Amino acid sequence: MEQAMDIAFLGTGTSQGVPMIAHEADGLDLQDPRNWRTRTSAHIWMGGQRLQIDVGPEFRLQCLRNQIDQVDYVLMTHGHADHIMGMDDLRRHVDLRAGKALPVYGNLETLERLQQVFPYAIHEQAPVKGYPAFSLREFPSTLDLPCGRIQSTPLPHGRSDTLGLVFTEKKTGQKLAYFTDCKEVTPAARALAENADILVIDALRPEPHPSHLHLDGALEIALALGARQTFFIHMTFAVDHERYNDTLPDNIRLAHDGLKVNVGTLEETTREPVWA
Ligand SMILES: [Zn+2]
Ligand SMILES: [Zn+2]
After folding, report:
1. 20 pLDDT more than 80
2. Domains of the chain by residue range
3. What does the DSSP assignment read for 113-145?
4. How far does the centroid of ligand 2 lie from the alpha carbon of residue 265, in Å?
5. H/E stretch holding 153
6. For the chain, what is the mean pLDDT?
7. How far apart are the CA of 181 and the centre of ligand 2, in A?
8. Which ligand has the minimum distance to the alpha carbon of residue 13?
9. Ligand 1 center to 43 CA (angstroms)
10. pLDDT > 50? residue 1
11. pTM score above 0.85
12. Is the pLDDT of residue 2 over 60?
């Protein structure tokens, strides 16, 4: 059977990472490697193409752990530091495509931010071997790629919007919705995510937060959308993996760093950290 789409959770932590610098573990079991969370991002294999969602500060280590040896498209959900600050390390992936710029998709606000932070990387071809090269492109509401379709839709995230992304693989119709960093999932986004095989959704912490979904909010949306499998991401130190996972229905779970899931079979594998 064709194994058309996979997702690897490169990072599943909130903006400060977990555990946090100079902070007590507070009931978080640090013997459990699933509680060590790098900044949230994901990598998708879709019909032979390789899509990188966000590029956080630990991107290099995430690539090593998850053996990410190719990137064809970079998809930015928004321009917050925890989602863009690893982009300089895309230079290696640019090298691997002979210096040809990586297409980087985002909303206008995100592209503006990238221009400010990485002005030296905005060109169609790396001028010198080893330089990053980004070709910035506004994310259309429907992006048709040879491997399938990506639909994008704004999600409220404090003072700015995040792009919610819905992937549909061409041959199999396998569908994955990725809603990180959002306070709400709009009716338009819910419609796009209908019949998804996998839903990935922001679930920051037990307490409500002004610009993120909290655990109960994410759970309510997960139940309403009814994907075959839902994974929570972007958690803080206040969420112990095992303790909270045990309270959830079988098809709704916390993701963890290094977890790779096949969107068709829902089969899972985990890659261990390489730097321990
Ligand atoms: Zn974030
Ligand atoms: Zn954010």
Report:
1. yes
2. 5-18+29-270
3. HHHHH-GGGBSSB-SSTT---EEEEE--SEEEE
4. 31
5. strand 148-157
6. 96
7. 5
8. 1
9. 16
10. no
11. yes
12. no
- Residue 273's pLDDT is 87
Write down the pLDDT at residue 153. 98
Residue 251: exposure state from Cβ atoms within 10 A (0-12, 13-18, ≥19): middle
Ligand that comes closest to the CA of residue 53: 1
Instruction: Find, among 209, 259, 262, 269, the residue nearest to 233 by Cα.
Output: 259
What is the tens place of the pLDDT at every residue in 46-79? 999 999 999 999 999 999 999 999 999 999 999 9
Q: How far is the CA of 78 from the centre of ligand 2 (A)?
A: 7
Left (φ > 0), alpha (ψ -120 to 50) or beta: where does 11 sit?
beta
**pLDDT in the model for residue 25:** 82
Question: First-to-last CA distance in the chain?
Answer: 36
Ligand nearest to the CA of 158: 2
In this structure, which ligand is nearest to the CA of 37?
1
CA of 192 to the centre of ligand 1 (A): 22
Q: 37 CB contacts (<8 Å, ≥6 apart)?
A: 11, 12, 13, 14, 17, 18, 235, 256, 257
Tell me what pLDDT residue 27 has.
Answer: 86
Q: Which ligand is nearest to the CA of 210?
A: 2
Check whether domain 5-18+29-270 has CATH 3.60.15.10, yes or no = yes
* 12 secondary structure, DSSP code: -
Indicate the helix (H) or strand (E) that contains 93. Answer: helix 91-95
